[in-house]
């Protein structure tokens, strides 16, 4: 079964992302959990849960909290590596992103994190939605 490509327009460009393979998705999820897991609850609470964080607009407090958590959890090289790993396979305006990563996001960090959010939502929305549903059920 082939995975469906997700597409979105962000800041005047067309971005495409395919869901990760199960192996890649688990590896990235593990790294994200290790990096931001302990403080993720506070970011989610401020965003209105997982869906709020995944659907939050730019400049929102939730994205700012998530970036703050990430920057405290990883050094600069690990952060760059993780972000590039998350974005591997992304297409921007018909071109592979990674070879043009630096020039595409030069001075456009807001766009960078919008695209990261899009890719994470493409890959993990069902997982986080399941967690939200399980938490709501457990709280009843």
Walkthrough of the structure:
With 140 residues, the chain is of the alpha+beta class. It has a domain at 40-88 and 108-138. It contains six helices and four strands, in the order ββααααββαα. The chain has helices spanning 22-47, 49-55, 61-73, 76-87, 101-105, 109-138; strands spanning 6-10, 13-17, 91-92, 95-96. The chain has a four-stranded antiparallel sheet with strand order 1-2-3-4, with helices on one face. A hairpin with a 2-residue loop joins strand 3 and strand 4 (95-96). Helix 1 (22-47) packs across helix 2 and helix 2 runs antiparallel to helix 6 (109-138). It is globular and about 35 Å long. 18% of the residues are buried. Mean pLDDT is 79; it is low at 131-138.
Radius of gyration: 15 Å
Shape: globular
- How much strand? 5-15%
Helix and strand element order:
EEHHHHEEHH
How are the strands of the biggest sheet laid out side by side? 1-2-3-4
Distance between the termini: 37 Å
Number of helices: 6
Low-pLDDT runs: 131-138
Strand-pairing-aware structural class = alpha+beta
The tally of beta strands, per DSSP, is: 4
How would you state the average pLDDT, rounded? Answer: 79
Q: What's the helical proportion of residues?
A: 55-70%
Mind describing the biggest β-sheet?
4 strands, antiparallel
Short description:
The chain has 140 residues and is of the alpha+beta class. The chain has helices spanning 22-47, 49-55, 61-73, 76-87, 101-105, 109-138, and strands spanning 6-10, 13-17, 91-92, 95-96. Residues 131-138 have low confidence and may be disordered.
């Amino acid at each position: 079964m082939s995975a469906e490509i997700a597409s979105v327009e962000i800041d005047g460009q067309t971005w495409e992302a395919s869901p990760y393979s199960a192996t890649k998705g688990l590896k990235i999820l593990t790294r994200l959990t290790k990096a931001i897991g302990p403080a993720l609850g506070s970011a989610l609470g401020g965003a209105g849960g997982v869906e709020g964080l995944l659907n939050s607009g730019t400049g929102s407090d939730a994205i700012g909290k998530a970036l703050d958590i990430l920057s405290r959890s990883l050094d600069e090289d690990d952060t760059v590596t993780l972000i590039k790993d998350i974005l591997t396979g992304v297409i921007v305006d018909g071109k592979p992103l990674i070879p043009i990563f630096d020039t595409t996001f030069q001075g456009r960090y807001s766009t960078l994190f919008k695209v990261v959010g899009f890719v994470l939502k493409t890959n993990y929305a069902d997982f986080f939605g399941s967690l939200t549903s399980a938490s709501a059920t457990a709280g009843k």
